[in-house]
């Protein structure tokens, strides 16, 4: 299951690996050194993995020491953090970025500022913050982070929207904006449409006046899923099997062929997306849930001049300034306030019940994102 939600940033500050060291070791360990559990129980609880492997086996709930704050640090109480496919991939050891081990899991979430160092200027106690860097480790009750690793977000948006803001919606928005010059009335086709990114694509596309063709795997409760996606703004929802049928061409009698396809699956599903693209169109791959390669027909590439691209939010952020990332987040917050972008379907699970949440997040046909709550 390769992640459908790309991560928020490209590098984790080395300081964050020090923040959980016992005080006696904190100043004499190299920056990349691992942390250890506190010798005495503390109020900081965290989901830690010391080896790569099956998340259900390698992730443990531990008590950790809270680091002393420096002048540029921020003490954050975490409120909620999702379990994304990319988090699972990172624990398994098959993601594009792997933090030094042992590591705290989680790359996304929202926390509230408890205290700030004397040099901190961008956030204040009481503010909500989200991570800007990959590998920050959000599956914990609280932590001390550097100011540069955090971005303040408005507190007038729903908590679950804030907790799931910097991965899936960012990925969806950038893919819709950066690869084809789409105009109101144009169409987009995507697979894995019930994923977090897929749900964000449906809503953002609707807000932009774009029409969507949404592909999902068949399942016993397929009509329930179709109804839910249409309530989000989906124009059409079809199964993988229906996508392969010749009759699907009738769909384009009343709407233009899509110039943009968004692929999170790979294999035959991605090949079918390519077949449905308009000449000169682009397919963007941002995940590979089927663990199968993208196979493109030579004739499609030559005679339809199709383009095949890839996208990783971490790379986008590496190539853009913090101000550009902040602008992206504020744009999404504006959509949230207007009711045009909601959090994906979520199941809130207390941190201590993490095993249940991890197992649920890896089940097939899951349409509900697991959210770890820290209170």
TrEMBL record:
UniProt main location, coarse: mitochondrion
Molecular function via GO: enoyl-[acyl-carrier-protein] reductase (NADPH) activity
Enzyme Commission code: 1.3.1.104
Keywords: Fatty acid biosynthesis, Fatty acid metabolism, Lipid biosynthesis, Lipid metabolism, Mitochondrion, NADP, Oxidoreductase, Transit peptide
Domain Enoyl reductase (ER) intervals: 61-372
Annotated catalysed reactions: a 2,3-saturated acyl-[ACP] + NADP(+) = a (2E)-enoyl-[ACP] + NADPH + H(+); (2E)-tetradecenoyl-[ACP] + NADPH + H(+) = tetradecanoyl-[ACP] + NADP(+); (2E)-octenoyl-[ACP] + NADPH + H(+) = octanoyl-[ACP] + NADP(+); (2E)-dodecenoyl-[ACP] + NADPH + H(+) = dodecanoyl-[ACP] + NADP(+)
Keyword Lipid metabolism: yes
UniProt GO BP: ceramide biosynthetic process; fatty acid biosynthetic process; intracellular iron ion homeostasis
Alphabetized CDD domains for the sequence: ETR (cd08290)
Matching InterPro entries: ADH-like_C, ADH-like_N, ER, GroES-like_sf, Mito_Enoyl-ACP_Reductase, NAD(P)-bd_dom_sf
UniProt xrefs under SMART domains: PKS_ER
One GO CC annotation: membrane
Location relative to the cell: Mitochondrion
Family: Belongs to the zinc-containing alcohol dehydrogenase family. Quinone oxidoreductase subfamily.
Role summary: Catalyzes the NADPH-dependent reduction of trans-2-enoyl thioesters in mitochondrial fatty acid synthesis (fatty acid synthesis type II). Fatty acid chain elongation in mitochondria uses acyl carrier protein (ACP) as an acyl group carrier, but the enzyme accepts both ACP and CoA thioesters as substrates in vitro. Displays a preference for medium-chain over short- and long-chain substrates. May provide the octanoyl chain used for lipoic acid biosynthesis, regulating protein lipoylation and mitochondrial respiratory activity particularly in Purkinje cells.
Name of this protein: Enoyl-[acyl-carrier-protein] reductase, mitochondrial
Organism from which the protein derives: Catagonus wagneri
Name of the encoding gene: MECR
């Amino acid at each position: 299951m390769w992640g459908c939600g790309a991560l928020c940033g490209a590098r984790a500050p080395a300081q964050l690996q020090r923040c959980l060291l016992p005080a006696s070791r904190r100043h004499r360990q190299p920056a990349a050194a691992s942390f250890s559990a506190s010798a005495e129980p503390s109020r900081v609880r965290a989901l830690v993995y010391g080896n790569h492997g099956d998340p259900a086996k390698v992730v443990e709930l531990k008590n950790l020491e809270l680091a002393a704050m420096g002048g540029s640090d921020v003490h954050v109480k975490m409120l909620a953090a999702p379990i994304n496919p990319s988090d699972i991939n990172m624990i398994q050891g098959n993601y594009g970025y792997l933090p030094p081990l042992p590591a705290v899991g989680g790359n996304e979430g929202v926390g509230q500022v408890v205290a700030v160092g004397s040099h901190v200027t961008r956030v204040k106690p009481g503010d909500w913050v989200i991570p800007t860097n990959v590998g920050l480790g959000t599956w914990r009750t609280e932590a001390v982070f550097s100011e540069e690793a955090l971005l303040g977000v408005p507190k007038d948006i729903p908590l679950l929207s804030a907790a799931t803001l910097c991965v899936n919606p960012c990925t969806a928005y950038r893919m819709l904006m950066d690869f084809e010059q789409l105009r109101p009335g144009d169409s987009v086709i995507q697979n894995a449409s019930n994923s977090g990114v897929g749900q964000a694509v449906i809503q953002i596309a609707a807000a932009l006046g774009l029409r969507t063709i949404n592909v999902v795997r068949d399942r016993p409760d397929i009509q329930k899923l179709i109804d839910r996606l249409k309530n989000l703004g989906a124009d059409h929802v079809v199964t993988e099997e229906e996508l392969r049928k010749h009759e699907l061409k009738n769909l384009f009698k009343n709407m233009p062929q899509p110039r943009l396809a968004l692929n999170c699956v790979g294999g035959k599903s991605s090949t079918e997306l390519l077949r449905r693209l308009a000449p000169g169109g682009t397919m963007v791959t941002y995940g590979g849930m089927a663990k199968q390669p993208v196979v493109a027909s030579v004739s499609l590439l030559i005679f339809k001049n199709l383009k095949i691209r890839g996208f990783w939010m971490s790379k986008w952020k590496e190539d853009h300034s913090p101000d550009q990332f902040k602008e992206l987040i504020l744009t999404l917050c504006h959509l949230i306030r207007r009711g045009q972008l909601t959090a994906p379907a979520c199941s809130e699970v207390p941190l201590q019940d993490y095993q249940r949440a991890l197992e649920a997040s890896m089940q097939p046909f899951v349409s509900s994102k697991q959210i770890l709550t820290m209170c």
